[in-house]
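Appendix B. Chain record.
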Amino acid sequence: MKNVCDAKRKLVFEITADDVTQAKRHDKRNCVIACAMKTMPGITSVEVGADIVRVNTPEGRTRYRTPDKLRAALMEFDKTGHWNLPAGVYALTPPPPSLSQEGMRKAHLRRQDSGTRHKNKAGKRYGVTGRYRKRQVNPRVLEFARLKAATAYA
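Structure tokens predicted for this chain:
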């Protein structure tokens, strides 16, 4: 596995009209941002997510935050195929502490230590196997049971 780290500085890139025409909908490796960034020197591949953009270089993988404006434009592009931002220069920023690898690791350990991982909203514990979960009743099953009982005694 490549060396994965969070970015320390922002990354500036340019989106052109060619990037928009080459982009594919619902493809994290060939969306508008990925097509624009692949033309930059030193970048081998790019994966664009809703929150994090992963940039692969020969040295390793770097994680950036997806800005809100680009995220909204990508969602619109995936729905309609129309890129609603003008061609120009955009920047990816380092992830905030809550989305950093260390922050996510600490949050996971905090949840694990506090024991709130397997509790419902009321604070009652339920097992991972589902033994303590409230069972749902299917109304169709009840109706079939009533019909079966009515026809059995008739």
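Further analysis of this model is presented in Appendix C.
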